[in-house]
Write a structure and sequence with these properties.
This protein has 246 residues and is mostly beta strands. It is built from 3 helices and 21 strands. The structure holds coenzyme A.
């Protein structure tokens, strides 16, 4: 672990048969994983719950180098299901960066925190190279079960800077990003604040999604994203295998 600072923080690994409270465990295997993991928690009352099917899966995620978790602020919650993070330098994949509060590399003079945020990621979500970033208090990101997120993807529940009207009132608050169940986000997609994507949908590569879409089973594409096809579904297998029923 990189940094743990503050009080009443909780980091729990949940397995099918047990839950391990990471800050007090004497389990040597888990402690070794934690030493190798890129996890930083700075602040108070943050609660991080990561589900794994097995200790091997936990090892693969935490010691594999493709996972970064930073939580800077108070009263934040992360619930992450049995996510498969792929990280291969050959394919230029970068794993999962999940950041609440402060993006790395902002410089020593910049300090940002976010409080009361919640990130929920479902089960069997495949993530190749994605940055999920929350910067504003009480904002939410939710990704449904069985979704698939390609690489070069940004899911930013913030613009990072303030836009105001001419009286100086902020106009670009972030509230939430909700990605439904079984949604496929293509390569190099950017998803901004206050977006909803309904179940069984696809976002075509290179698209920028800027607003909520509530219709399920559609393909979105373009900048800004629009519905380009309705009445579709998708399967994780490549077509060769799909048609042979493999
Ligand atoms: C969206 C996608 C899946 C194509 O689906 P499809 O059902 O074959 O769609 P089509 O090619 O028939 O395109 C439908 C329309 O959307 C447009 N379109 C498709 N993808 C688009 C994109 N990424 N941006 C803008 N427009 C796009 C097409 O030009 C077409 O427009 P038209 O109706 O005006 O002719 C494909 O374009 C795509 O993004 N593939 C990459 C997926 C990926 O990122 N894989 C990485 C592994 S996770």
């Amino acid at each position: 672990m990189k940094t743990i600072q503050g009080q009443n923080n909780k980091l729990v690994f949940a397995f099918p048969d047990k839950e391990i409270e990471c800050f007090t465990t004497t389990n040597e295997r888990i402690n070794l994983m934690l030493e190798q993991a890129n996890i930083s928690i700075m602040g108070n009352n943050n609660r991080i719950l990561l589900y794994f099917d097995s200790e091997e899966d936990a090892e693969e995620l935490l010691a594999g180098g493709g996972f970064l978790l930073i939580v800077k602020g108070n009263d934040n919650e992360v619930d992450m299901g049995t996510v498969i993070v792929r990280s291969s330098p050959i394919l230029g994949m970068t794993g999962l960066k999940l950041i609440i509060g402060q993006l790395p590399g902002l410089g020593a003079s910049v300090s940002r925190t976010a409080n009361g945020c919640r990130v929920t990621i479902g089960n069997k979500v495949v993530i190749n190279g994605t940055t999920i970033y929350l910067q504003e208090d009480n904002s939410r990101v939710c990704i449904g079960d069985d979704s698939q997120i390609s690489w070069g993807v940004d899911i930013w529940c913030t613009d990072a800077h303030t836009i105001t009207d001419l009286d100086g009132n902020p106009i670009n608050y972030a509230q939430s990003i909700e990605i439904g169940r079984h949604v496929w986000i293509g390569k190099d997609v950017k998803i901004g604040k206050n977006v909803r994507i309904a179940d069984n949908s696809i976002v075509g590569w290179g698209s920028i999604v800027t607003k909520p879409f509530d219709e399920p089973n559609v393909i979105f594409a373009g900048i800004p994203t629009k519905i380009v096809k309705r009445g579709i579904n998708w399967d994780r297998k490549c077509i060769n295998k799909y048609v042979k029923g493999l």
